[in-house]
Design a protein that fits this description.
- With 423 residues, the protein is α/β, with parallel strands linked by helices.
- A hairpin with an 8-residue loop joins strand 3 and strand 4.
- The chain has two domains: 48-129, Threonyl-tRNA Synthetase, Chain A, domain 2, CATH 3.30.980; 135-415, Rossmann fold (3-Layer(aba) Sandwich), CATH 3.40.50.300.
- It contains 15 helices and 13 strands.
- The strands form two sheets. The chain has a nine-stranded mixed β-sheet with strand order 6-5-13-12-11-7-10-9-8.
- The protein is elongated and about 80 Å long.
- Helix 2 crosses helix 4 and helix 9 packs parallel to helix 12 (313-325).
- The chain starts with a helix and ends in a 9-residue tail after the last helix.
């Protein structure tokens, strides 16, 4: 409120100077890449001989079943190599698809994934895991030109695709994200990567997190950035919510904040948060009428299954409401769960999360529940993930961030001057 009062005085003196929301923390310095471990330049682990041998084996195996192949080429990625084959005319695709296990046997591979056909190309893809996996470090991803130059509102660098390109997506466009994966397949690391890439790109005045962590330990590392990036209710001491009863309270108050924001947008005659903030920065809205600069709010829920067991409908309804309505006013949800079964990811929740990520899951049914198609059960694990946005599936090797790195990042931000209290 103090900030709003100051602005009023300023507004009378210099009405034509744009308001800068970052002025309260004008000395805030963005974290540097030096805080992250440098693992050197990654090199591809697949040799030419290995590639040629694999190509020959694939052609030979398909030849046994009288499937002739016109051409074959390979693309090497961090964890898998993609072989693109063009079958000769008159060969049925379904025939190739049914030979998945035979090809895996001849290549002595852990398990392969056949994409028939690859969307947008006239080829059939065979993904074969590399014998030696290459690690994608978070430093190489955040330091990449694509991430540094991204003009997105909330850029998230996930990792590298099969073709070794950095994969960056915009959380504001997604608008919400649903993550699933069995225990130990990289879900929590994935969450840390998402949070870290947002911390690298946004000023505390532009972004707030609401962290819900029923596991109590996964997100507690982010306690230190409370006065910069975290939002909480006035009557709660802990910035990170671990208690189920408080979770319902928090979700409901987020719904109230959403309604308040919509009222302000309606008064200002704006359609979304971006237009509203642009208007406010140009000083076309009067703070005395309650108008204020609105940061993005990202709600992170680390274990949905636990909440659904203990609170069920009480949690499901506000989540669904936020997911349906909150995209225009800058509240975005990231929900992670270990068990992508139907009673956790209900139809209501699923319908409102068009963007989904799946790490390795145990069964084909789980994969169907989260992605609406199989394939997540054939991943290798350890950060190997499928990103589904609408119709296309993208296979990404998730970047790796170690706990000490997250610690250093939070310390760096936490040691700087923050706001007097959480948002």
């Amino acid at each position: 409120i103090a900030a709003v009062a100051d602005e009023d005085e300023d507004a009378d003196v210099m009405p034509n100077v744009n308001y800068d929301p970052t002025l309260d923390l004008s000395r805030y310095q963005f974290p540097t890449l030096e805080l992250l471990n440098d693992y050197g330049v990654a090199k591809a682990q697949v040799t030419k001989e290995e590639l040629e041998a694999n190509k020959d084996r694939i052609v030979e195996t398909l030849g046994h079943y009288s499937i002739a192949i016109a051409s074959i080429k390979a693309t090497i990625g961090p964890t898998v190599t993609l072989y693109e084959i063009v079958p000769e005319a008159g060969i049925r695709i379904s025939k190739i698809k049914s030979l998945e296990d035979d090809i895996a046997l001849s290549l002595a591979a852990l398990g392969i994934r056949i994409i028939a056909p690859i969307p947008g190309k006239g080829t059939i893809g065979i993904e074969v895991p590399n014998t030696k996996k290459e690690m994608v470090s978070i430093r190489s991803v955040l330091g990449s030109e694509k991430f540094a130059r991204s003009e997105m509102d909330l850029p998230v660098a996930f990792g590298r695709t099969i073709t070794n390109e950095v994969f960056v997506a915009d959380l504001a466009k997604m608008p919400h994200l649903l993550m699933a994966g069995a225990t130990g397949q990289g879900k929590s690391v994935g969450l840390n990567v998402i949070l870290a890439s947002l911390l690298y790109k946004r000023h505390p005045a532009q972004l707030k997190f609401v962290l819900v962590d029923p596991k109590k330990v996964e997100l507690s590392i982010f306690n230190k950035i409370e006065r910069h990036f975290l939002a909480k209710l006035p009557d709660v001491e802990e910035p990170i919510i671990t208690d189920t009863k408080k979770v319902v309270h928090t979700l409901n108050s987020l719904c109230m904040e959403m309604d308040r924001r919509y009222d302000l947008l309606k008064e200002a005659g704006c359609r979304n948060l971006k237009e509203y903030n642009a208007k406010f920065v140009e000083r076309r809205l009067n703070p005395k009428k309650g108008h204020r600069f609105m940061p993005f709010i990202v709600l992170v829920i680390d274990e949905l299954a636990d909440l659904m067991m203990t609170a069920g409908k009480e949690v499901e309804q506000p989540i669904a409401r936020l997911a349906q309505l909150a995209r225009a006013i800058g509240i975005h949800l990231i929900v992670a769960t270990q068990r992508p079964s139907v009673n956790v990811i209900t139809g209501i929740i699923k319908a409102n999360f068009p963007c989904r990520i799946s790490f390795k899951v145990t069964s084909k049914i789980d994969s169907r529940t989260i992605l609406d198609t199989g394939g997540a059960d054939q991943l290798i694990g350890q950060g190997d993930m499928l990103f589904s946005a609408g119709s296309d599936l993208i296979r990404v090797q998730c970047a790796f961030i170690d706990t000490p790195e997250v610690d250093r990042l939070c310390d760096y931000i936490g040691e700087q001057q923050g706001y007097a209290d959480a948002y």
